[in-house]
Amino acid sequence: MSKKVHIKTWGCQMNVYDSDRMVDVVAPLGYAPTEEVADADLVIFNTCHIREKASEKLFSELGRLRSHREAKAQQGGRMMVAVAGCVAQAEGAEIKNRVPWIDMVFGPQTYHQLPEMIARVSREKGVVLNTEFPPVAKFDFLPDTSITTKVSAFLAVQEGCDKFCTFCVVPYTRGAEYSRSVDAVVKEAGRLVHEGAREITLLGQNVNAFHGEGPDGKTWGLARLLYRLAEIPELKRLRYTTSHPRDMTDELIVAHRDIPQLMPFLHLPVQSGSDTVLEAMNRKHTSDDYRRVIDHVRAARPDTALSSDFIVGFPGETDQDFDATMKLIRDIGYAQAFSFKYSRRPGTPASAMTNQIDESVKDVRLQELQKLLREQQEQFNIATVGQTLSVLIENKMQKDGLVFGRTPYMQALHLAAPECLVGQEVRVGITSAGFQRLEGVVATVSADAA
Ligand code: 5AD
Ligand code: SF4
User: Fold this and answer.
1) For the domain with range 138-382, which CATH number is right: 3.40.50.2000, 3.20.20.105, 1.10.3660.10, 3.80.30.20?
2) Cβ atoms of residues 405 and 394 within 8 Å
3) pLDDT tens, residue by residue, 313-334
4) Dihedral of alpha carbons 230, 232, 237, 240, sign
5) What's the 270 CA to ligand 2 centre distance in angstroms?
6) pLDDT band at residue 423, thresholds of 50, 70 and 90?
7) Taking the domain 3-130, which CATH number applies?
8) Closest ligand to the CA of 310
9) Total-model pTM
10) Looking at ligand 1, which atom is closest to the CA of residue 344?
């Protein structure tokens, strides 16, 4: 390979997946990935639009890139620059106007067309703007090999969202809900395992709404897909993210009990503990609905570790509403969670609401909520000290003699162990725990923990 591609990724795991697939799409054109932006012949910024400041960050990154691009031109070379992802989708025209020297702007649904876009940029002057939602799915046009496969791999099975939570841009940037066929997913999973993956996380903005066409011509839900994937030998672990409480079907909950490869960890965003706020968010569930789902999941698999997303300071959120969220967190108990200040996203219904909350109030609430979540995460981790857990070793660390792995509960773990264990599940005695990670020793005798 003679050319180099540098991709910088912001945002969710779906963007990480997309960036890896972009590497695969341009590999046949002779591009090898590089960490060094100055070396790159092609730079792609894969952007996220879910919260504020994304576009400001992007414009300042582009400003910095310009000097590298000019340096390359002075040496007689050329650096093509592309903006991809959800900011490109939402603000393509503005990017084109503000950064006239940009070469390509394309959204999440058209990156399979990168070879044509690169060819056009080489031939013509001017910006290639490609933010359509083409009628054919990009998945059918992505390469069937990958040079980016990791021990823990992502597999996009569903994309887009029809839920229209009033704060969220996803239905506009990623489009309507779309599920891949079961055959396509199984084929990609087989390929990932062949390339060394031992854990697969199924991805989708609303992954548990998956409704793909099965090999029998019928529509399969996520549960049935998981049972099918669990038949793949050598695939040791399955996970899925991110889910909506309304789509936690009984069948899916039972799958948590019956599929040993399905890890005891569930990321199920609730956003708020207040029914008034949930209604204004158009979440289509109450806080009791959510509690019931969690009860069922815990009845099916009692050791399930829980994760969630929370938004504080949604328009109209009162102190009582916020207290209801804090109470919910105390009642449920989380192993980890993400939390955000509400951010007005242009074009979404909540951004036009007149009862916006002061930034200072949001700051105080977020701090209080994150303090509680941090305490819970630390307690959860400390509770595993003394246990023997199965850890999938994902990679070696920079420091010699250390490897990185994860427990079934998604806890990060550093371990003194040889590199040859990468890709294997190892029994590890947990010796210490902090908020962020565990440490342990390889167990000499295998115990019967998780
Ligand atoms: N403001 C703050 N947080 C948001 N999220 C989505 N949109 C917004 C917004 N406008 C959060 C939600 C979602 C996660 C991916 O990002 O909690 O679950
Ligand atoms: Fe956004 Fe998730 Fe709501 Fe869909 S379900 S609109 S992706 S927050």
Assistant:
1) 3.80.30.20
2) yes
3) 999 999 999 999 999 999 999 9
4) negative
5) 11
6) very high
7) 3.40.50.12160
8) 1
9) 0.94
10) 10
